Amino acid sequence: MKKVIVLLTAIALVMSAPTQAQNKLTAAETKAGWKLLFDGTSTKGWKIFNGKSDGTAWKVADGALYLDASTKEGRGDLITAGEYENYEFSYDWKIAANGNSGLLFNVVEDPKYSAVYVTGPEMQVLDNNGHPDAKIHKHRAGDLYDLIACSEETVKPAGEWNEARIISNKGKYEFWLNGKKVVTFTMHDAAWDEMVAASKFKSMPDFGKAKKGHFALQDHGDQVWFRNIKIKELK
Length: 235
Description:
eight-stranded antiparallel sheet
């Protein structure tokens, strides 16, 4: 009987615990210096890389910023208006069945670059159970795409929200996925250069060279959703 009472009490506490509103900062987060990069209602603060379209394929519904893959108009990779260097960056994502996308960072916007991946490394967004890329080592969800595989798999199935985080502090990086640190690496040193030289990015001379840049939400042709996009810049 005591075990039943304890179990019922625990369930009641979980059900009564307050849930944080989506795309909102708590008082503690605001005090700590966090800022929202997505307001939950519009694409304000975002733009299409190199102005390749008007961006109307990126829409907002139910508190999520998503790519409407059913349309051919307004497509392209969506990037932040601002550039960032040292930070803790947090976001939620979910992907459609068999879908592929990504979150890129240190993206340099310039007409001489054809795409965001020419300069910016990527934290992979993928349906590991359905997309062919999942069969390729270092191409699975949460991986530093084509460079470092996750230390463990923590991704949720297609259609479910994942909590992701990227920490950048003076060239040292951490990837977190659903509460677990899954990738660590250092950029801009000899080991980084060797790793890039052994990857598919070896023919891109400016890949992974920038120390700061835009964040990018990748248009890989599949339906993908993002929310709770926020950042705390580190000094």
